[in-house]
Amino acid sequence: MLDGFGKTNLSAFRFLVLRMNSVQHTFEFEFLPTKADDPFIKHFSSRSKIDRDVIKDDIPSFLGRHKEFLVFSILNFDLKEIPPDYFILITMARFSENYYAVRNKGLSILALGNWQRFMAPPSLLEFITTLILQESVAAIYPSLQSLFHFGTKGCLFDFTSIINDVKYKVLNAHICYSCRMALARSNHPNLADELTYVLSKEWLGNPSEPTSPASITSKLGYNLFTTKGLEATTWEKFVQTIQQEGVKQLITIVSGIALTALLLWLGLK
Q1: Residues with Cβ within 8 Å of residue 27, at least 6 apart in sequence
Q2: For residues 123 and 170, what is the distance between their CA atoms, to the nearest angstrom?
Q3: Which of 23, 27, 14, 30 is nearest to 204 (CA)?
Q4: From 263's CA, which of 47, 96, 97, 249 has a CA 20 to 30 Å away?
């Protein structure tokens, strides 16, 4: 679920999250609508900080209403699949005390309004996809909180009270030994390896490969190597254009030199 992004182009973000369905087999991600007039959702349209404790207390009643809304929509369109058991709400709102996450039975909320461009790299999009993986474990691991450790190891389950410190778990693509053992005991022995592979981003490929996720993401308006926020700034668009045109210009120059050399050789002959 997404809220508070306004008219931001989220096509690239949606594509990358859905692409994670094909590079691991423990979780299956999907995007579902919310009722904009739901009082719980309205909390996140506020520019002021939101009280985490109030939000946490309201989660059970919201989930009841939200599931009713989804079931009604499914029946209305004569569809078959029932709603999922766990939801993640991603928003650009801000929690009190500068926390960025809260979870209760059935719902995790990521409030990323405190993210700033100076925190890149990694980009905000990478922040979000990593935290989605972290919160997804809550759906299958009964006591996710017990996984978190106070020390910063670059592990997905580092306890990071400040959002700027999240960058280390995003950049390192690591599951520490103690967390690996805990995940193995939860009847998901391959989960740590799957998480590490997704976090490594090797599956993104190269932007020069037309069918790679990196290339498709670029065509959707998001360059993974130059864009910091969810949308490119004017400067980032300029840099991307220079990079693209630079390659084209190099090809033109090389072709021109080759043609000149060929004509010169033919003339001499």
Answers
A1: 20, 21, 133, 136, 139
A2: 9
A3: 23
A4: 249
Helices (H), the chain: 11-19, 39-42, 52-76, 124-140, 166-172, 177-184, 191-200, 213-219, 234-268
Distance CA 198, CA 39 (A): 35
Which single residue is written with the structure tokens 């037309």? 210
Residues 6+ apart with CB under 8 A from 208: 215
Per-residue model confidence as pLDDT tens for the chain (269 residues): 776 666 677 888 899 999 999 999 899 999 999 888 899 998 887 777 888 888 988 999 999 999 999 999 999 999 988 899 899 999 988 888 778 888 888 999 998 888 888 888 888 888 899 999 999 988 887 666 677 888 889 999 998 878 888 889 998 889 999 888 888 887 788 899 999 999 998 999 888 888 899 899 888 888 877 777 666 666 555 555 555 555 555 455 456 566 566 556 556 55
Query: Token digits for 258?
Result: 């080759």
> What 8-state DSSP symbol labels residue 165?
G
Q: Whole-angstrom Cα distance, residue 85 to residue 114?
A: 29
Q: CA–CA separation, 175 vs 231, rounded Å?
A: 30
